[in-house]
Each structure stands twice: as C-alpha cells, then as structure tokens.
Amino acid sequence: MIGIRAKWVIALLLACFLVARQPSSAAAHPADMYTQTYTVRLSPTAVTLTWTISPGPLLAPSVWYAADADGDNVISDEEARAWLSPLLADWQSALDATPLTWEVTAVTWPTDRTAFELGDDVISALLSATFPAPLAAADLHIANPYAESVSINWFYLYGADGIRFARPQQQNGRLTIPITPDDEAALTYWDSGTPALAAGAAPVTAVNSEEGATACLLYTS
After folding, report:
1. CA 159, CA 165: separation in Å to the nearest integer?
2. How far is CA 74 from its chain centroid?
3. pLDDT at residue number 20
C-alpha cells in the first residue's frame, strides 16, 4: 500500500491539476484536501472494510474540534463514533439493488493532535456488512460522498474463499465491483493505483499552469 507521505505527494500533483482547471480566483492544495483509503475484503457471506481519513493541515483542526464535543482536547471512543455516524449514514452501499447496512466494529482516533494535523496519524474505522445470501454473481456498489469534491480516494480490494471479481469501476469515492465467483480467470486483488480524479475531471498526463512556469504530471489507473 502507498504510505501516507507518498499519498500527500500524489495529492500535491493532483491539486496542481485542479488549480489549473479552476478560474484564477480558485485554488486547491493538499492543505485543504482529504485523502481517504478503503481496504475492502470480500468473503462469500460478508464484506469488511477499513476506512481511513486524513484531512490536510488546514482542515484537521476543524475536524478535531467537530469531534471534541466536551472540549477536553481528547477524542473519546464515544466522540469518535458520534462524529463518524452521520458520515457513514450518507454512504450508499448495495448488492445489486439490495442496500447494505454497515456495522462499526471499531473507530481509532489519533491521540496526538499535532501528528494528526501533520498527516502522520489518521482516523480509522473498521466496518462490516453481511450479505443477505451467499455471494453470487452481482454488482457491489460502495459510494462515499463525504468531502468528495476535495478528496482523493484509494481502494484496495481482496477476494477470499472463492470470491473473484472483474475489474472494478471507480469514480473518486464511488466504486462498483462486478462479483464473478464462477470465473476462475477473474481477479482476487485490485487497487486504485494512482487514484481516480474527482467526479467530472478528465484524465490527463500533464497540465501547465496559467503562468506557463510549472508542469504537474498526473497519471490515472
């Protein structure tokens, strides 16, 4: 998996692309963007997902204060779960047309605010959902709209116990996984590589700034 610091390097390149696409009055920078990572593990009966969230240093203080309900500068398990709950409620997850319900197994919040603001520590949630029947050929949809316009999203996908899938389709925080357990040539592992751009952004290999002085290289998977 790509390390946190490596992700911020890629975020910097992506931000340069976003700046080049915006009018001169707008700006995008890793300092006011999120990186979100999802490790998805599929079995015949359930899916588990580890979701990590790392806000840029301009966003991290407001995220911390929003979670710190009692103002003691420590995020308790109850506060962490309360902060996460409305975010997870906005997810749109389904197996074909059957909605999935995520259960929160654990939430880990950084204990050091400085490390959190520097991006050295992240928010992490372990989620699980049970399938209504043993997994057969179907499309699994996962869609997280949280801060989607200012986020870069990485997915890592694993199939176990005979679960295979065709190449997923990703649009930033939204992923469709075609489950094909009977296809022995299908995948048991996939990752986003360099992440997909924000919804509506066109893939590019190079973008020049308006001043023409800087080129930012971006590669899409």
Report:
1. 8
2. 25
3. 41
The predicted-structure confidence for 56-81, as pLDDT tens digits, reads as follows 999 999 999 999 999 999 999 999 99
| Per-residue model confidence (pLDDT) at position 46 | 97
Neighbour tally for 180: CB within 10 Å: 18
| Alpha carbon distance 165, 173 (integer Å) | 19
Nearest of 110, 112, 146 to residue 37 by alpha carbon: 146
**Token pair of 73, please?**
């500068």
Q: Please give the single-letter amino acid code of residue 92.
A: Q
Q: What is the pLDDT of residue 31?
A: 79
DSSP summary character for residue 28: -
β-bridge pairing 151-159 and 34-42 = parallel
Token pair, residue 119, equals 């991006």
Q: Which helix (H) or strand (E) holds 7?
A: helix 4-21
Low-confidence ranges of the chain (pLDDT < 50): 15-29, 196-221
∠ CA 36-121-71 to the nearest 5 degrees? 100
Burial (CB count within 10 angstroms: exposed 0-12, middle 13-18, buried 19+), residue 176:
middle
- Within the chain, strands assigned E span 34-42, 46-55, 92-95, 98-99, 103-108, 123-130, 138-143, 151-159, 169-171, 174-179, 189-191, 206-208, 215-217
Q: What is the pLDDT of residues 112-125, one digit of tens each?
A: 999 999 989 999 99
Residues 6+ apart with CB under 8 A from 128: 46, 47, 48, 49, 102, 103, 105
